[in-house]
């Protein structure tokens, strides 16, 4: 993966127009990420500012995850997803939707994975292809097809969630993270740092969104 580079965001006419192969965008994760980061001007500066605010924002992750699941439980179509056993969970499952609560064993189990993903967003090395490969697998695993060989071998079922609800959930997460950044005290982050961090998180979430949609939408 090409290291992140500094990118000018000035609205000047480009000297040349890049040629982009749509076939490579569809089949090559490296080419797709290169296109996404170029298009969104995701640079080494974005990486640096996320790293700078990560420790200060890390503390809100448990409440972020709790808020996300509470929202998913407001609607039957998003709550029903968790009536299916998945991702290696071998504990008890309720038989009726109304018996599924935020304290149910599978929900507690799922929250562990969500917290790990949120912390990865704040601490990842975005110059590494491994980071984008991980985020791409997060997208795949919600489609009902496991991207992990050990899960397929063991017969572990992945999640099967409509893209609509994945995108909405990412929007909710983005809003919570950005609000937390804006609420940081001045002694922790000055105004420019907050602006830059909100922008950087916005880019990461939209890239993650694309790494969901590419597995749902055939284009």
UniProtKB/TrEMBL annotation:
Gene Ontology molecular function terms on file: heme binding; oxygen binding
Membrane-spanning residues: none
Pfam families reported for this sequence: Protoglobin (PF11563)
Residue ranges occupied by any Globin-sensor domain in the UniProt entry: 30-219
Protein name: Globin-sensor domain-containing protein
UniProt source species: Rhodonia placenta
